[in-house]
Design brief:
Elements (H helix, E strand, L loop, with lengths): L2 H23 L7 H16 L5 H16 L7 H18 L4 H26 L2 H5 L1 H9 L6 H4 L5 H17 L7 H22 L2 H21 L1
Helix pairs in contact: 1-2, 1-4, 1-11, 2-3, 3-4, 4-5, 4-11, 5-9, 5-11, 7-9, 10-11
């Protein structure tokens, strides 16, 4: 995948993710309609490739206004990854062709790899994750919209312990998928399935779309480095 193709695919996927989020906000934040309507318009221009790269720059500047209005990335990790992707893309688009442009976009791919590795490392240091207790608590007491039938999984400690270790080992081993393009494709497929499961089970749909939008960056990075 060429750098230009990876950047273009990433910005389209990210704009679609922002578009979905903004449409949700139109129903909830009545006093901030103008911010999300403007975001929807800019996302449409990015998807259509109109006036590039200025709609992307506009989204980056708008993100500063929204950070001030909501006192930070209020939706946690998915918002942080979305902001990181947005600013890396904006920098890559306004920079002339050369090493600086590659570094700006490559940094996004590197951060995606680290996001999995660090998440796994933090979990494996946590005794509740190693014992499976953390997942049991998620299914038993979580405020996420888990169905009553799924809450019954909290009574299967061995299954949840196995699931905990599967998640931790996959996340820690994720950097090894960069060895080749086939292993990376397998790794990204498993990671996407993991995020999709979280979206279906716990309603964490933002993580799925935001992380998926960044996958072209790591595909390009793997080809560039290896």
């Amino acid at each position: 995948m060429t750098l230009d193709a990876a950047i273009r695919l990433t910005e389209v996927l990210l704009a679609l993710a922002f578009l979905q989020q903004s449409l949700e906000h139109l129903r909830r934040f009545r006093g901030e309609h103008i911010l999300f309507v403007l975001r929807i318009v800019l996302c449409g221009l990015v998807i259509g490739g109109v006036l590039a790269p200025w709609p992307l720059v506009g989204l980056a500047l708008l993100s500063l206004v929204m950070l001030h209005r909501f006192q930070g990335p209020y939706n946690g990790g998915s918002d942080r990854m979305g902001l990181l992707a947005l600013w890396c893309l904006a920098l890559a688009q306004v920079m002339p062709a050369g090493p600086a442009r590659e570094i700006a976009f490559g940094y996004l791919g590197a951060q995606l790899v680290l996001s999995y590795f660090i998440a796994g490392w933090v979990k494996i240091l946590n005794p509740d994750w190693r014992s499976g207790r953390a997942l049991r608590q998620v299914f038993a007491f979580s405020t996420y919209p888990v169905s009553e039938s799924l809450r019954g999984w909290a009574q299967r400690p061995r299954v949840l312990t196995a699931m905990s270790w599967a998640v931790m080992l996959f996340e820690i081993a994720f950097p090894l998928t960069l060895i080749s393009q086939p292993t990376l494709m397998v790794g990204l497929g498993l990671a996407a399935a993991f995020h999709l499961a979280n979206a279906c089970l716990f309603g964490l749909n933002r993580f799925f779309w935001t992380w998926l939008a960044v996958y072209p960056a790591i595909v390009w990075l793997q080809g560039r480095v290896f």
